[in-house]
Amino acid sequence: MEMKICQSCGMPMQEEQYGTNQDGSVNDKYCCYCYKDGEFVQQCTMEEMADFCAPFEVEGGRCKTVEEAKAGLMAYFPTLERWKEQ
Question: For the stretch 5-43, what's the b/e string if a residue is b when 16 or more beta carbons lie within 10 angstroms of its beta carbon?
């Protein structure tokens, strides 16, 4: 089975990490940290999302510095559905 990626923060998701729609059904496009009850948890800009996510990239060992992580996320996020139109 293909791993789903949150279309807001880019996190690889397990099924239990899927967000929820307004009717309580599962939304497999966004994670539970970004999307709950049919709306985004954080009303933020793409840059604010990158600021928020960058420390997790460092913590996970994917980047050495927050600055490196943020630069990578700012390049990656426009490929995700939430940020494509911005």
Answer: bbbbbbbebeeeebbbbeeeeebebbbbbbbbeeeeeee
